[in-house]
């Protein structure tokens, strides 16, 4: 499974209909983004239960600004629509695997409880 391009038109639908979404925020002018792209795509081939998506921060600046992306590449992993990983910089394929494994094991009831407690 390759990645999908997220835009303001499909963003909410993709997040609402998938348990785990890993997003690469990137820009065409970014050298590290270009080097990370094949790693991200290769990882998508090994995790069919995870949606891999890319957001071009130049083209989709509204989404990037909403999520406070100030550096590219930035990788965010969302589970049940909640950001559980926010990483600036590139990752190795092994690191992506480890992060996905970690995210799969999260107790989302506890995550939501912690979020509620932090908002008070």
From TrEMBL:
Gene3D superfamilies: Glutaredoxin (3.40.30.10). The record marks 24 as: Deprotonates C-terminal active site Cys. PANTHER family: GEO12009P1, THIOREDOXIN 2. The keyword DNA-binding does not apply. Keywords: Disulfide bond, Electron transport, Redox-active center, Transport. InterPro entries: Thioredoxin, Thioredoxin-like_sf, Thioredoxin_CS, Thioredoxin_domain. This is Thioredoxin. One of its GO terms (cellular component) is cytosol.
